[in-house]
Amino acid sequence: MAKQSLHSSKMFTIPFCIILGAATICFSRAAAAAATSSGETTTSSYIDETCIDPEASANTNIAADTTSSDSDISASPLAKARTLKAPLASATEDAEFEHSTFWEDNGSLLKDAWAEWEEEMHPNSFQGAGKLVDGSFINPVLSMALEDAFSNPSELMEASVKSNWMNSNHDEEHHPTLLPKGVYATQLLTPSGVSHIRTLLDMATTSGIPTRRPNGMNRHGIILDPNVDGAVPVKALLNLVEEELNNRVVRPVGRMLFPDRVGCEDDLSYFAFTIRYDGSEDDDNDNDNDDNDESSTLKRDVKLKEHRDASIVTLNINLNLPEEGYTGSEVYFRDFPSADDDSTDSSVPENNYEWDVISPGDDKNGGTVQFSPGMAIIHLGAHRHGSLPISLSADSDKNSSSKRYNLVIWLFGEDGDVRIAPYEKEDQMTVAERWRGCNHTQEVFAFN
């Protein structure tokens, strides 16, 4: 099977899952009939491999408060949205359907509220906000290499870009270790770039408009999308994701780093979201407790169970500021996925790693990566991974943030496909096609 369709390009569909032992396989409701008992699938959806039974979700949906008055009827969409009693995200698995009725019922109102909110903001609030290429936000060395590759695509220019995406530790002399096979990292954002994005996100999340959980596993974060009910459709953030990060970074770099896995039409659509892990000390902060207990709705996300992404390529950017410290929260990766990978091992690595980048442990090509502020990692969506628990930094007091903030972008095919089979050498894109598109897709790369 060459492809699995994991998304809907026309609408946001939330999937459910079939769990076979340790393996979890997702499908969109529309495509459920196409699934077989063996777990083969042709379609699924945006959200990761963790989903929920639609019938079970009906018991947890919380509808909006429909009590109305004359003042309610005359209120603006923004005012109405701010009075909504949004349900709290509680489950940490199989939660894509959690409270879906609330978000669907209020989707149009929320979109109108965001449009009104953007109009009310001071004209200078978003001036140039969707741009990162002014030389101060993206690592200038990487930015220059990217611009050279766009201007004059060649193997030499690609080598310059690739040299910025290391597959080894920063300090070869003291820690001669490798990143997990198939995982690449770079210092993507400067502190100014991180601060810029965080400011935009903070403005949106303090708007008073309810926002939907980012996916079925993380409870804290937002979706950045113009069409998804409950997502944040702020134009400055969408432009930043679509024009600056997708077109200028993750799409061409993903094609360059994985030339046998990514083809011309395999990465034209995206799903973007933020996540937040919190290691602050409180009374009870364990994801393993009963997710159906009402007390769990107030808990923080401290880790992420092993999973695959519903993407061909994933970009994960750390949005912590230099002064925001924490301990743990390493991202661990299993062996690099082969084209016919059917591994279902989901145990967590036992090693208590101390280095920023870890050499492989029990997995031949696996390992663990510690994020630093502004750092980005890129990997295949099929590469199994998870996050180890986060905790309060040893040299921090209880008032320290002890949080990890990330922006994640999944790329996948225009029709929702995620390709599995590798390309033969003769079928792979040329250097020019990786940076300027292929025939009918060239408009995706048109920046001027």
UniProtKB/TrEMBL annotation:
<feature type="signal peptide">
    <location>
        <begin position="1"/>
        <end position="33"/>
    </location>
</feature>
<protein>
    <recommendedName>
        <fullName>Fe2OG dioxygenase domain-containing protein</fullName>
    </recommendedName>
</protein>
<keyword id="KW-0732">Signal</keyword>
